[in-house]
Structure formats: C-alpha cells, structure tokens
Amino acid sequence: MTPTDVLELARESIWVTLKVGGPILIIALIVGLSISLVQALTQVQEMTLSFVPKIIAIFVSLILLLPFMVTTLIDFTRELMDRAIALG
Length: 88
Prior knowledge:
The protein is mainly α. It has helices at residues 3-42, 47-87. It is elongated.
C-alpha cells in the first residue's frame, strides 16, 4: 500500500465520519441555539428546558437518519474489504 493510498483512505474515513455524525450534530446545534434564544428572551434559566428537547431531537433524528447512516457505513466497509482483497 502506497502512502497515497493511505492518505486517500484517511480522507475517505474522515468524510464518512462527517457524513454519519454531521446531521445529528447540526440538529443538536439548531435545537440548542433555539432553546437558548427562548431562554434568553423569557429569562427562564432552567437546565432541563435545554436538555430534554435536545435529547428528544437527537433521538428522533437518529430514528429518521439511521437508514442513511447504515447505508453509508456498509458502503464504506465494502470498499475497505474490496481494497483488502485487492492487496492480498
């Protein structure tokens, strides 16, 4: 395996990580910012008010995005296995 192949594999690994984790993190960020805005406007500083909606949004987004995440990981794993077979 050449250094170019290793760098390409590392780049693809980072890209897959961003594709799988990015949407969940973005949804958590949007929900957290909107709850913080509501808390700042109403001056209600309750810890559970920011925690519970964020957890619910993350669970719902995981349920909705799970097929995309699994497909992405399966495709990446197949590509890795094909590369391993080609080496040996």
